[in-house]
Amino acid sequence: MPFPIHRKRRLRVSEPMRRLVRETRLDPSQFILPLFTCPGEGVRREIGSMPGNFQLSIDELVKECEQARALGIGGVILFGIPEKKDEFASEAYADEGITQRAVRALKRGVPNLLVITDVCNCEYTSHGHCGKIVDGDVDNDATLAWLAEAALSHARAGADIVAPSDMMDGRVAAIRHSLDAHGFYKTPILSYAAKYASVFYGPFREAAESTPQFGDRRSYQMDPANGREAIAEMDLDLEEGADMLMVKPAMPYLDVIRAARERYHVPIGAYQVSGEFSMIVAAAQKGWLDLDRAMMESLISIRRAGADFMLTYFAKDAARALG
Ligand code: PBG
Fold first, then answer.
1. Nearest CA to ligand 1 atom 2
2. How many folded domains does the chain comprise?
3. Ligand 1 centroid to residue 201 C-alpha, Å
4. Tell me, what CATH number does 66's domain have?
5. Of 174, 223, 170, which Cα lies nearest the Cα of 194?
6. Residue 10 in domain
7. Which residues are catalytic?
8. Ligand 1 atom showing the smallest separation from residue 311 Cα
9. Which of 143, 270, 283, 300 measures 20 to 30 Å from 25, CA to CA?
10. Structural domain boundaries enclosing 212
């Protein structure tokens, strides 16, 4: 008998052959583009640590979203940079807050584009933490009221989905109750259920101006060493009424995405965060990686691990590459 009988290379012989047996595919509808919106008009300020990403005033945001829609991407997620921050994150839940105004402008100007809002306080507090500070720590239960108000104000403005990212205990239930009590029982919650205290958020904090002024987020975000705890977090969020779950960051946590895929029957999202994006772009700028291939390989790996959709700063470029 000749050796070897089995030759896996037979099915890799040409692109048409590889295409036939490809297990995982990417489609623009799977990409959600994160966008940062700020006060002013005609503002399009590039974020130094995230080349190709901008702080956009609402008029510019609308233009950016028209492009996103034309490329067929799944939607956008909004982060607001308020005029002024205070101890109580007042603008996070104000009907005239930056995010609320941005949502209204998008619903008017770019119909049929899915608009998700990030529900968190860190961009809105003077201290940069995700909630109310009591005795030097973020007070869980006091923060829930802010989050419930913020999610409600986003839903009122027309948000298609609200996505809490603060990691307070009980926030999904608090938000669900507040939405339902005000008639927004149709607004889904995408929970950042397994969100780690990650160094890879560094560039985002420059973009969103949300670096904590003291300490860090390890008393509320998860320890990167823990996988089982992620399952416990996701179980709780589903019990509390989450419609979809998210794992964040993505590439360093593919095992968690896979575990979630196997265990749950709800849609699973994964956030390829700012640091994951900026590492690839920086290496490409140095000529060490091919940008397009690194972008597509990173996204396919997240999809292969089991994510239904990806929040990614590559959304537009990847959609173009698939074009
Ligand atoms: C919190 C929030 C953060 C990110 C998304 N939502 C930052 C944080 O937890 O410090 C990070 C996203 C990224 O790095 O791209 N509002």
1. 165
2. 1
3. 6
4. 3.20.20.70
5. 223
6. no
7. 195, 248
8. 15
9. 283
10. 27-322
Residue whose CA is at the smallest distance from ligand 1 atom 14? 201
- In this prediction, residue 226 carries a pLDDT of 98
Identify whether 15 is part of a domain: no
Tell me, what amino acid is at 69? R
Q: What is the pLDDT of residue 214?
A: 92
Residue 212 alpha carbon, nearest atom of ligand 1: 10
Size (the chain), residues: 323
- Closest residue CA from atom 12 of ligand 1: 273
Ligand 1 pocket member 274 (CB < 6 A): yes
| Residue 174 pLDDT > 80 | yes
Evaluate whether residue 220 is within a structural domain: yes
pTM of the model: 0.97
- Whether 13 maps to a domain, the answer reads no
